[in-house]
Structure formats: structure tokens, C-alpha cells
Amino acid sequence: MSAERTPRQVSLARLVEFGVVPKRSLGQNFLVDDNIIGVILQRLAPLPADVAIEVGAGLGILTRALAEVVARVHAFEIDRSLAPALEATLSDTEVAERVLLQYRDIMKVPLESLEPLPTICASNLPYSVAAPFLGEALERLPSVRRYCVMMQKEVAHRLAASSGGKDYGSLSVWVQLHARIVEVRALSRTIFHPQPNVDSSLVTLDRSPIDPLVTERPTLMRAVVEGAFSQRRKLAVNALSASLGVPKEALGDVFRLAGVPTQARAEAVEPHGFVALARGLMEFGLDDRYNETPGRSGRAGSG
């Protein structure tokens, strides 16, 4: 290919060089505007000693940029056919030594076992994994202080939604129990190849649990949040009674102690209200079922 026709963006050059054809089955939309890498790094504010985690390494453009400024990068890519292009991007010896590359489904990885533990996260998250990954990572990786991730616009709206709105759900509560939303920035479809049929956003989160109970009793918190939203049309007290197997009368006392109206639906309860409900269950000794060591019994905040 002549110099005049060579794509200026590194990512576009990799697509051409290795004949990469995006797989619709995996929801692949490659980031092809390398300028956004600078925006991500600016928002992420990495330190030389940081350990990054990236989900969906793709062609390795963001992976390499991270490896040039941090100590280690845990990079995950599920599509092994991208290995030639990805590994070519990371072929520089100094960069390669900093990248711990795994061709695995991130949702099957025990995140808490990663060595060294990640301290920051930057990713172009596949649409199907954005919500479940964030739900798991916020619970299982308390070492991560900041996230700067791309995701579907609708998912970004859900995690940033305030109580009372139609977008407010278990994802909103779960994220806001663990983190502060710093920024939600709209992204143009033209920065991806192929251009997606949906809009995307760049979301920056700072870890900031609103109450120690969130990290001390994650299984209980998960049960309360997921249970309350399990039947959105019902009152929260009825939905929780069914999901937790606790008599409605007993839950009435819990709601009153927590200061949550018994006539409230889940979407009307602010995040701190769910913490108060969990604490009320503990106060009345109704939390015994949730004393087990947290496990992957469900996907936190998917709704």
C-alpha cells in the first residue's frame, strides 16, 4: 500500500495490515480514533506504580498506551483470532514485559485473584459485558480507585440515573453504592469501526463506597438491591418479602426502622435507603441467610 493510502490512525492500520474482520457475534466495534486514547489517559490520571485492567484489548492500541505509563496491565481479550494484530501492537520488548495478556472471558475470571491487584481500569467495554463486569469489579476489586470506560449510552444513563426516573434500577444503585460518577461524556459513532447502531459514552468513576456495610456485607447488599427490583411493579416491601423469604409483617418493621416508606417502590428508594434496609435486616436478625462468603451467585446490578 502506498504511503498516501496508509491509514494515519494506528488502529486502522492494524485492521488493514492483518485483514481483521469485526465479528458481530462478539459485538466487536474497534476504536479507530486514536485521539480518544489521550482523553482516556487524561481522565484516568495514571501513576507510574499503577496496575491497570483492560477488558476487550482488541487491537492493543489502548493496551500499549496504558503499558507506556503504568507498571503493569492486565489485558483480557476473548477473541483469539485477534492475537496476531494484538501481539504485533505489543511487540516492543519494554511494553510486552508490562502486559499480562490473557485470552479469556472476563466474566469467568476470579478478579480478586489477579496478581498484582489492579488499581485503575480503562476499557472499551463490549456492550454485552459492560453492566455485569462493572457490577462484579466494583464488588470484587476494591483496589481499583478509578474507572474510565466506554459503554453503550443507555447503560451509562442507567448507572448514573437518580431515584424516581425510569432508568433508575439495580445497576444504578449498585454502582452508586460503590462509586462516585465523575463524568459521562458522549462519544461519536464515527470513532468506532464498524460504526455501531447505538450511541456510546465515556464514563469516569471514582471508587467511593457510601457506607462500610457495602464492602463488609456484599452478599446481603446484593440480595437487598436485587430483591427490591426483582418485581418493579410491586411495592419494594412485597418484592423483598418474596425474594428474601421474609414475612411482610417483619419487613414492615425493617422499613420503618430504615426510614423507608412501606408504600415505596424500589425506584423511589435512594442508594443509602438500601443500606438502611440491609442494616434493619441485621438489627432484627433476618440476615442469617446472607452470612456466607460472597460468591458468584448472581450478577450484581444488571438491571
At CATH level 2, the architecture of the largest domain is 3-Layer(aba) Sandwich
The CATH homologous superfamily of the largest domain is termed: Vaccinia Virus protein VP39
Order of strands in the sheet with the most strands?
Answer: 4-3-2-5-6-9-7
Cα radius of gyration in angstroms: 21 Å
- Please tell me what the overall shape is: elongated
- Count of DSSP E strands? 9
CATH class division of the largest domain:
Alpha Beta
In angstroms, what separates the terminal alpha carbons?
48 Å
Number of domains: 2
CATH fold call of the largest domain? Rossmann fold
Roughly what is the average pLDDT, rounded to an integer? 91
Major sheet details: 7 strands, mixed
Low-confidence blocks of residues: 1-8, 294-299
Fraction of residues in helices? 25-40%
Enumerate how many helices there are, as a single number.
Answer: 13
What can you see in these coordinates?
Helix 6 (130-140) runs parallel beside helix 8 (170-178) and helix 10 (218-228) packs across helix 13 (271-283). The chain has a seven-stranded mixed beta sheet. Strand 2 (51-55), helix 3 and strand 3 form a beta-alpha-beta unit. With 303 residues, the protein is of the alpha/beta class. It starts with 9 loop residues before the first helix and ends in a 20-residue tail after the last helix. The radius of gyration is 21 Å and the shape is elongated. The chain folds into two domains: 8-208, 3-Layer(aba) Sandwich (Rossmann fold); 214-290, rRNA adenine dimethylase, C-terminal domain (Helicase, Ruva Protein, domain 3, Orthogonal Bundle). It contains 13 helices and nine strands. The chain has helices spanning 10-17, 35-44, 61-67, 83-89, 93-98, 130-140, 153-160, 170-178, 212-216, 218-228, 236-244, 248-258, 271-283, and strands at residues 30-31, 51-55, 72-76, 99-102, 120-124, 146-152, 179-187, 192-193, 200-207.
